[in-house]
């Protein structure tokens, strides 16, 4: 048991899927897993463990943003010995050729967060996905004949930003999408020597201002979850 997670020893699998929304964690557990137990309800951050075929898998919400995700990743790894974390979340498109519902695999993640600047005494750190998980996710998507883009993304600290053109500098440098968590996940994975990957679905576009309807979001989220479950170590 840790400060923010009430699980007993052995209740969390070595691989954890992490959507931002704890209700999406419940959706994954209810839809895809068997013999499910709920290992955490502290602060409403639901966590579940079950079986996907013969693989034991856990799924838990991360909350929104790098600071919240960092709390849970630290405790999952340090207190419960987690070895792999796969983020499954939504993102905003920064490129015109990305459509609503498209899947993106985050190879690297830039950020405007000060967390890494504090950690590295003002220097920049370039965190990256685990290559083995990245390759397996890419191959799994292609086996399903699902188009997927792989590349750099941007993780921001703010959801609402006053400058309507803030994203363009990142688009000019070929960042595919933006989210609020992946940079933090990859940075901690590097520090803690665990595997991490972010599989993202485009839910809106900063280029076209389109937003996906709820039904389409659910379909895209299911595809992400299926790929993550398939490749989970």
Please outline the helices and strands:
Blueprint (H helix, E strand, L loop, with lengths): L14 E4 L3 H11 L1 E7 L6 E6 L2 E6 L5 H15 L3 E10 L9 E9 L3 H5 L11 H13 L4 E8 L12 H5 L4 E3 L2 H11 L2 E11 L8 H18 L2
Parallel strand pairs: 1-4, 1-5, 5-9, 6-7, 7-8
Antiparallel strand pairs: 2-3, 3-4, 5-8, 6-9
Helix pairs in contact: 2-6, 4-7
Q: Could you list some keywords that capture this structure?
A:
alpha/beta; Rossmann fold; 27% strand; single chain
Question: What does this 3D model show about the protein?
Answer:
Helix content is 33%, strand content 27%. The protein is of the alpha/beta class. The protein has a single domain, classed as Rossmann fold (3-Layer(aba) Sandwich), CATH 3.40.50.1580. The protein has a 5-stranded mixed beta barrel with strand order 5-8-7-6-9. A hairpin with a 6-residue loop joins β2 and β3. The protein is globular and about 45 Å long.
Level-2 CATH architecture? 3-Layer(aba) Sandwich
- Note the gap between the termini: 24 Å
Please, what is the CATH homologous superfamily? Nucleoside phosphorylase domain
Q: How many domains in all? A: 1
> What is the topology, as strand order, of the major beta sheet?
5-8-7-6-9
CATH overall fold name = Rossmann fold
Q: Report on the biggest sheet.
A: 5 strands, mixed, barrel
* Poorly predicted tracts of residues: none
Which CATH class? Answer: Alpha Beta
Structural classification? alpha/beta
In terms of quaternary structure, the protein is single chain
Radius of gyration, taken over Cα atoms and rounded to an integer in Å: 17 Å
Q: Please, what is the average pLDDT?
A: 95
Number of distinct beta strands: 9
Count of alpha/pi helices: 7
Approximate strand percentage: 25-35%
Shape: globular
Helix content: 25-40%
> Which series of helices and strands comes N to C?
EHEEEHEEHHEHEHEH
């Amino acid at each position: 048991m840790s400060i923010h997670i009430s699980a007993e020893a052995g209740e969390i699998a070595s691989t954890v899927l992490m959507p931002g929304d704890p209700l999406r964690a419940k959706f994954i557990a209810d839809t895809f897993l068997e013999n499910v137990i709920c290992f955490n309800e502290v602060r409403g951050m639901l966590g579940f463990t079950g079986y996907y075929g013969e693989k034991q898998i856990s799924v838990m919400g991360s909350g929104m943003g790098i600071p919240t995700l960092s709390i849970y990743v630290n405790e999952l790894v340090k207190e419960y010995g987690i070895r792999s974390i796969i983020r499954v979340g939504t993102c905003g498109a920064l490129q015109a050729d990305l459509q609503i519902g498209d899947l993106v695999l985050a190879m690297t993640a830039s950020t405007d967060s000060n967390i890494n600047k504090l950690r590295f005494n003002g220097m920049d750190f370039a965190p990256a996905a685990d290559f083995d998980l990245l390759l397996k996710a890419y191959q799994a998507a292609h086996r399903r004949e699902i188009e997927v883009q792989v590349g750099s993304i941007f993780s921001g600290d703010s959801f609402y930003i006053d400058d309507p053109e803030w994203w363009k500098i990142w688009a000019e440098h070929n960042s595919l999408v933006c989210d609020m968590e992946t940079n933090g996940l990859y940075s901690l994975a590097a520090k803690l020597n665990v595997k991490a990957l972010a599989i993202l679905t485009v839910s809106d576009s900063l280029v076209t201002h389109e937003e996906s309807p709820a039904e389409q979001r659910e379909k895209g989220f299911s595809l992400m979850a299926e790929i993550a479950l398939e490749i989970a170590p």
